[in-house]
Write a structure and sequence with these properties.
It is a single chain. This protein is an alpha+beta fold. The chain folds into two domains: 3-67 and 199-236, no CATH class; 72-195, no CATH class. It is built from two helices and 18 strands. Strands 5, 6, 9, 13, 14, 15 and 16 form a seven-stranded antiparallel sheet that branches. Strands 10-11-12 form a three-stranded antiparallel sheet, with no helix packed on it. Helix 1 (3-27) runs antiparallel to helix 2. It is elongated and about 90 Å long. The model has no long low-confidence stretch (mean pLDDT 86).
């Protein structure tokens, strides 16, 4: 197979992967706490000979999560929490701890705050956050201190990765870490607010069009190259 075909195929594979991520971003533009993703392309260059041009091949070898702050929307929900600044909520799941920016919680049957999937919210010490069922008022201060009837209960912990590469997406709004998280200081938590997705619909649709056009150009080249090879083989076979 010709070197140009190999180079185009690697590019097409990367563009297809980017198209999938862009489509997923658009599908989650209304998902609370969602962080949009992009593809990181790398280039491999090989010298073919003293007088021959070098061969350049691109590949989508990584995924990049955009940590830009999403828009905060006031909901008035007693257990709707939004982070203003850096950091993530720490969640306990059956497969280990995870981080999220989605702050919509509800009390479980035993009074523990849980996500819509039933995962428990953890405080700064790694313990589940408990709310007394008979509490008449629940308040959350800006530093994460949760109180019931003016009596402090616990402080909700905020965490972040030690390095950006330690963070990897587990699913829609959940992230896992390859190293222990670090506590975040001086970040505000708002009660009665939720952070929306940081996806810019117009920008993502424009990017989808660009990727689609680039893919179509590459496919057009592969189709022409395939036809050229067929013509050569047909001519030589006569």
């Amino acid at each position: 197979m010709d070197n140009s075909v190999y180079a185009t195929l690697t590019r097409q594979s990367g563009l297809m992967r980017e198209m999938q991520l862009v489509a997923n971003n658009i599908a989650n533009m209304s998902t609370t706490g969602f962080r949009k993703e992009g593809v990181v392309f790398s280039e491999f260059i090989e010298k073919l000979g003293d007088d021959a041009p070098s061969l350049s091949m691109a590949a989508a070898r990584g995924r990049l999560t955009d940590q830009t702050q999403g828009v905060l929307t006031q909901t008035g929900g007693l257990f709707d929490f939004a982070i203003e600044g850096e950091g993530f909520f720490l969640i306990e799941t059956p497969t280990g701890q995870a981080l999220t920016r989605a702050g919509s919680f509800t009390p479980s049957d035993v009074g523990e705050l849980v996500t819509p999937d039933g995962y428990r919210l953890l405080d700064g010490g790694g313990a589940p956050v408990f709310v007394p069922p008979d509490a008449r008022s629940i308040t959350l201060s800006a530093d994460g201190t949760l109180s019931a009837d003016s009596q402090p209960l616990t402080q909700i912990g905020l965490w972040q990765p030690g390095a950006p590469e330690d963070l990897s997406r587990r699913d829609g709004v959940m992230f896992t870490l390859s190293a222990p998280p670090q506590p975040v200081q001086e970040t505000t938590i708002l009660q009665g607010f939720l952070e929306g997705s940081n996806v810019n619909p117009v920008g993502e649709i424009a990017r989808m069009i660009q990727v689609q056009r680039a893919y179509e150009l590459g496919q057009g080249f592969l189709d022409k190259e395939d036809q050229r090879i067929r013509n050569v083989l047909s001519t030589l076979g006569r």
